[in-house]
Amino acid sequence: MILGIAALGVCILSFVGQTTATRQVQETYQHPYLILWVSHSFWVIMLPLHTIYEKLKRRSRSLAELRAERHPWLVLWRVTALAALLVGLLNASAYLWYVAVGLSSMSKVTAIYNTSCFFAYLFSVLLLGDRVQVAKCAAVAVSIIGVVFMALVNSRSDDGANMTAEARNTELLGDALSLVCACGIGLYQVLYKKYAVPRDFHSLYTVNFITAMLGLCTLVLCWVPVPLFHFTGIERFAWPTREQALMILANALAGVAYNGGFMIALTLTSPLFAAIGVMLTIPAMAVIDMLIQGSVLPWNVFVGGGAILAGFCVLTLAEYRDNMRKAQQT
Questions:
Q1: CB-based contacts of 172: which residues, under 8 Å, 6+ apart?
Q2: pLDDT surpasses 70 at 82
Q3: Which residue has the higher pLDDT, 316 or 251?
Q4: Helix (H) or strand (E) segment spanning residue 157
Q5: What is the C-alpha to C-alpha distance for residues 315 and 188, in angstroms, rounded to an integer?
């Protein structure tokens, strides 16, 4: 349990570091897709890192489970093919996040991004046949109201009064992109659960294999938009400076740490505990925003963020009751 809490702490800190590094590098190097491509390509190191970890263990349970499969290479080939299909949705949604970070405040982007769990529930009902519950629907409604409140209600503080119409429109665009990103990530998570995870086979090694294949597919396939964006003028290619390259590398390594920390926390604790813990990135990013900007955030950010957290608590309570009921039935 202690190791799981430590892994969750790494997960939260790495998410804060990744968001901060992305925001800072885009102040002087506005190439969100190239940054995304480098960051997601680094996921390929998850598999060798996990393999080394398994080799160092006295009991390599994950590798043993994989070898015990009747057709292990068929499982791995299926996962690789599905990763190639899912990588488009993943990177398209993530690209919107990278763009949004450069347009809106980090705390708002983080809060809106975390509503992906609610979209995941919506798509679970539509695609996985999950039962519709009033409590869960209410949680979705409250979270969406919180997002709208954060994005649309203008602050009456001095900072809000001094903000130009163009700046407000830019921030609103960033909020809208964050919401579309959250929707796409929610859909990706449901499709991942439905198609990418082999039935009756639960192994952390397989999870990291999928993550590594997503990184490999990004590296091999998703470089194509880089020259296309350059020639169409959407995103002109330019080599980063040494300082910018270091920030991009820090962003990529933070992304790897986030995925690794989350999966370890998920394995050693529970999905409910890990999901609640990740929501701590919302107040964490609010604090980082205040420290970087040197000013207090508008009141609507706190009220909207509180609504998102309230909706999430209702959803997790409903999930807990569902799990308890299923455990009693078995």
A1: 151, 152
A2: yes
A3: 251
A4: none
A5: 19
Residue 200, burial from CB neighbour count under 10 angstroms (0-12, 13-18, 19+): exposed
What DSSP character marks residue 241?
Answer: -
pLDDT tens for 84-102 read 788 888 889 989 988 888 8
**What is the spatial distance between Cα 140 and Cα 152, in angstroms, rounded to a whole number?**
18
- Cα(54)–Cα(35) distance, rounded to whole angstroms? 31
Which tens digit of pLDDT belongs to each residue from 200-238?
A: 555 667 677 778 888 898 998 889 899 998 999 888 899
Inform me whether the pLDDT recorded for 151 exceeds 50.
yes
CB atoms within 10 A of CB 7: 23
Structure tokens at 49: 């890192």
Q: What is the DSSP string of 17-74?
A: HHHHHHHHHTTT---HHHHHHHHHHGGGGHHHHHHHHHHHSSS-HHHHHHHHSSSHHH
Sign of CA dihedral 230, 248, 188, 303: negative
CB 34 within 8 A of CB 223: no
H helix runs in the chain, sequence order: 2-25, 32-41, 46-56, 61-68, 72-101, 106-113, 116-123, 134-152, 158-162, 165-191, 204-221, 225-232, 242-268, 271-278, 281-293, 299-329
Q: How far apart are CA 186 and CA 45, in angstroms?
A: 25
Q: Give the global pTM.
A: 0.74
What angle is formed at CA 262 by the lines to CA 103 and CA 308, rounded to 5 degrees?
50
**Three-state SS at 117:** helix
Residue 66 has pLDDT above 70, yes or no: no
- State the chain's maximal CA–CA distance in angstroms: 66
Per-residue pLDDT, 61: 52
Could you report how far apart the first and last alpha carbons of the chain are, in Å? 26
Residue whose pair of structure tokens reads 């998920």 in the numeric block: 266
pLDDT level of residue 38 (50, 70, 90 thresholds):
very high
